[in-house]
């Protein structure tokens, strides 16, 4: 079957699939404990600091760390009472929408005048998220507060192959004695193109500025960034990627008609990954290469509209190619490699038989 033109690829209509698979949220009984889930993977730190800003609002800040092997989304809670003694619960999300393993993110509650906290902030609910971490953004900054305004400033660079949108840097603010003073967000960079560098700045509240010494827990939040890959000829490939893994340098390789990327599963024992691409023909053949060799722990299913490629990611760092994503060929590269291996084995067997001593 002939290769489709770039114009065709631009006109392909394919429904956008959900990138993140959300599992049910669980309320937590022991809300004020340092580690608040059964496996001690979610840690709540420094949640007892507060200050009153220029608007008379009480600010309460803290940090949540993820010590597990699965990305999480966290909603914080805080019980408050008003002047009449009526109690209610406020909810706030962390500054990072997804907290990946070994990472953390700050939060902040701002209480209007007349509201008083009842107890400390707590994790009201959390969700495990089956979403890759795309290792496409490099932050360059110093942790030390800069200038009279005691700001956090630096640069962000897009080292990937796709545009990143609505990028925001967050951090926790500390004094010289490591006390947690504030939680801050930077300016939002609406579009960061591949190879582009942008400056970011985050400022502490004026009420605590004089005591700011350094920043920690710095990370970034970005809109679910990756749903299409440019092909270099004006076209693109839509896809959906689901895995609890770190993904780097995802790209389209024309020579092998592949989606290629590096991957490291967060689970030390390895784990599953799933990629969905459009099905462009009834006889479309898709194959998976891992570290340059045909890979067998793969299941490929097609329903006439979508091809689903489920595969196991072994422990450690690996390079993967999903071949046959755009063109339909009777013998894609992976199949040719497999045929070559089989042919070599047959040749070796015949050679051995020819020189067998009876």
Q: Stretches where pLDDT falls below 50 for ≥5 residues?
A: 1-35, 328-358
Q: What pattern of helices and strands is seen along the backbone?
A: HEEEEEEEEEEEEEEEEEEEEEEEEEH
Strand content: over 45%
N-to-C CA distance: 52 Å
CATH architecture of the largest domain: Sandwich
What characteristic shape results from the CA principal axes?
A: elongated
Helix/strand/pairing category: mainly beta
Main pleated-sheet profile: 6 strands, mixed
In the residues, how many domains can be counted?
A: 3
Radius of gyration: 25 Å
**Physical arrangement of strands within the biggest beta sheet:** 7-18-19-25-21-22
- The DSSP helix count reads 2
CATH topology of the largest domain: Chondroitinase Ac, Chain A, domain 3
Structure characterization notes:
The chain has 358 residues and is mainly β. It has 3 domains: 42-128, Immunoglobulin-like (Sandwich), CATH 2.60.40; 133-221, Immunoglobulin-like, CATH 2.60.40; 227-343, Sandwich (Chondroitinase Ac, Chain A, domain 3), CATH 2.60.220. The protein has helices at residues 6-11, 333-354, and strands at residues 42-52, 58-66, 72-81, 87-93, 104-111, 116-128, 133-134, 137-141, 152-158, 164-174, 180-185, 189-192, 197-202, 214-221, 228-230, 236-238, 240-243, 245-253, 258-265, 271-278, 287-290, 293-294, 298-302, 306-313, 317-323. Strands 7-18-19-25-21-22 form a 6-stranded mixed sheet, covered by helices on one side. Strands 10, 11, 12 and 14 form a 4-stranded antiparallel sheet that branches. Strands 17-20-24-23 form a 4-stranded antiparallel sheet, with no helix packed on it. The radius of gyration is 25 Å and the shape is elongated.
């Amino acid at each position: 079957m002939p290769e489709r033109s770039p114009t065709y690829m631009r006109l392909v209509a394919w429904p956008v699939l959900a990138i993140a698979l959300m599992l049910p949220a669980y309320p937590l009984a022991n809300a004020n404990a340092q580690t608040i889930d059964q496996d001690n993977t979610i840690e709540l730190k420094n949640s007892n600091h507060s200050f009153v800003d220029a608007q008379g609002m009480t600010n309460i800040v803290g940090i949540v760390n993820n010590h597990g092997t699965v990305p999480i989304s966290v909603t914080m809670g805080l019980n408050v009472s008003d002047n009449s003694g009526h109690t209610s619960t406020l909810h706030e999300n962390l500054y990072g929408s997804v907290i990946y393993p070994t990472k953390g993110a700050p939060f902040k509650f701002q209480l209007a005048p007349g509201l008083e906290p009842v107890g400390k902030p707590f994790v009201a609910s959390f969700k495990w998220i089956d979403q890759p971490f795309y290792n496409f953004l490099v932050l360059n900054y110093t942790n030390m507060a800069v200038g009279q305004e005691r700001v956090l400033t630096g640069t962000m660079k897009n080292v990937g192959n796709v545009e990143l949108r609505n990028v925001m840097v967050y951090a926790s603010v500390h004094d010289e004695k490591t006390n947690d003073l504030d939680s801050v967000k930077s300016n939002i960079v609406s579009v960061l193109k591949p190879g582009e560098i942008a400056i970011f700045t985050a400022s502490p509240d004026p009420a605590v500025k004089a005591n700011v010494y350094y920043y920690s827990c710095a990370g970034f939040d970005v809109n679910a960034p990756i749903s299409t890959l440019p092909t270099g000829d004006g076209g693109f490939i839509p896809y959906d990627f689901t895995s609890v893994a770190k993904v780097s340098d995802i790209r389209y390789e024309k020579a092998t008609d592949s989606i290629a990327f590096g991957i490291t599963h967060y689970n030390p024992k390895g784990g599953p990954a799933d990629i969905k691409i459009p099905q462009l023909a009834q006889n479309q053949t898709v194959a998976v290469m891992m570290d340059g060799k045909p890979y067998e722990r793969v299941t490929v299913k097609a329903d006439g509209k979508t091809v689903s490629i489920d595969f196991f990611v072994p422990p450690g760092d690996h390079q993967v190619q999903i071949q046959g994503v755009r063109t339909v060929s009777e013998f894609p590269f992976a199949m040719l490699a497999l045929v070559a291996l089989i042919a070599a084995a047959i040749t070796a067997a015949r050679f051995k038989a020819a020189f067998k001593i009876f």
